[in-house]
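Q: what sequence does this backbone want?
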């Protein structure tokens, strides 16, 4: 799985990659034509904030026809949108099952408890239920195992026959990258992020600890905050608890002209990247509703708490008092090993990865599955 490019880390504003964005964009734009992306649009100026946000349109999608991407620079936002559309295309493709068997029949081939996977609501999972399985491997040691097809693939198309509900199908953990290691790391970060957000939103009261983003001492985060402030929009950032110990943030944006609070989440070994992901994603969510082109927008986005977020009380906490010193590795491979170890300890099972890469497309795509982690449809 490891490649030479995974041994060097290209540090970019708001992300780490295995290659410079110009090289990645060449790969992504070639693949975009193959998977059916017909248009990539810069929608940044539909809002007053100015945080770069792009849309990639794939009309023949079996799920979402419009994918969005955000970034600190227009180049990174464009790349984010195109890569997300490519990822979803891979998840939509039919997965040929290695075998059909009940959990009882394949128990000796599983490295995890199948009941630790996120169930659908309702779910009829039981030891004797026939399931379709595809191969996967453990990120802790590489042991081969199996995962249910419905956990890996995703399609909204109507299927013939009887398909008993057992597991939640979603894009959680779906990721692409320049290499399999890069894609796997991004997918694992997303799984950890959504576990933390799910736990926070399920708790009583306001989630996490309100923090001052400027207290991180990041020029990138300060620049994003300045754009938001200049637009007359209130930014509220909260540090969420994660059993992994990784920095996980939730960001809200709201203003008088557009009072509904828009959310963004971020998780990463580097607090700066985690924070900037949350903030740029909140701006992306806001633009999703302003543009109105996404297939999955909610009809009711009224939020009784939005006025409080526009008029926050009290002094936000200093991030330097809450965060441990950042862990810095020189390579993506080292990052992945570190994050795998903390995720395994936190969730009680080693995360798994199923590779979805298609040779004709030429972009590494994976689905990371973390038994024991939490996710609800509200955070997808």
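A:
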């Amino acid at each position: 799985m490891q490649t030479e490019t995974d041994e060097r880390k290209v540090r970019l504003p708001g992300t780490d990659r295995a290659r410079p964005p110009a090289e990645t964009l060449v790969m992504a734009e070639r693949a975009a034509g193959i998977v059916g992306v017909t248009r990539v649009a810069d929608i940044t100026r539909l809002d007053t904030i100015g945080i770069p946000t792009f849309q990639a349109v794939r009309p023949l999608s079996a799920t979402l026809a419009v994918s969005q991407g955000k970034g600190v620079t227009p180049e990174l936002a464009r790349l984010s949108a195109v890569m997300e559309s490519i990822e979803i295309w891979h998840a939509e493709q039919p997965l040929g099952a290695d075998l059909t068997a009940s959990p009882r029949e394949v128990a000796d081939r599983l490295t995890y408890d199948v009941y630790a996977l996120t169930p659908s609501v309702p779910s009829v999972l039981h030891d004797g239920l026939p399931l379709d399985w595809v191969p996967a491997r453990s990120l802790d040691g590489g042991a081969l195992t199996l995962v249910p097809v419905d956990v890996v693939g995703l399609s909204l198309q109507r299927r013939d026959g009887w398909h008993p509900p057992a597991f939640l199908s979603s894009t959680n953990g779906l990721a692409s990258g320049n290499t399999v290691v890069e894609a796997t790391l991004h997918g694992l970060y997303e799984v950890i992020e959504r576990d933390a957000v799910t736990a926070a939103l399920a708790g009583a009261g306001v989630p996490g600890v309100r923090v001052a983003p400027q207290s991180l001492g990041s020029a990138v985060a300060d620049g994003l905050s300045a754009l938001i402030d200049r637009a007359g929009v209130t930014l509220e950032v909260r540090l969420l608890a994660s059993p992994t110990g990784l920095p996980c943030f939730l960001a809200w944006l709201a203003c008088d002209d557009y009072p509904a609070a828009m959310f963004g989440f971020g998780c990463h070994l580097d607090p700066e990247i985690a924070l900037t992901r949350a903030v740029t994603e909140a701006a992306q969510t806001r633009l999703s509703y302003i543009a109105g082109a996404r297939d999955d927008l909610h009809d009711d986005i009224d939020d009784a708490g939005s006025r409080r977020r526009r008029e926050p009380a009290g002094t936000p906490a200093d991030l330097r008092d809450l965060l441990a010193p950042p862990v810095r590795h020189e390579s993506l491979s080292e990052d992945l090993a570190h994050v795998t170890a903390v995720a395994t300890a936190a969730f009680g099972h080693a995360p798994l990865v199923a590779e979805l890469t298609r040779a004709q497309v030429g972009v590494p795509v994976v689905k990371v599955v973390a038994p024991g982690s939490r996710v609800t449809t509200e955070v997808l």
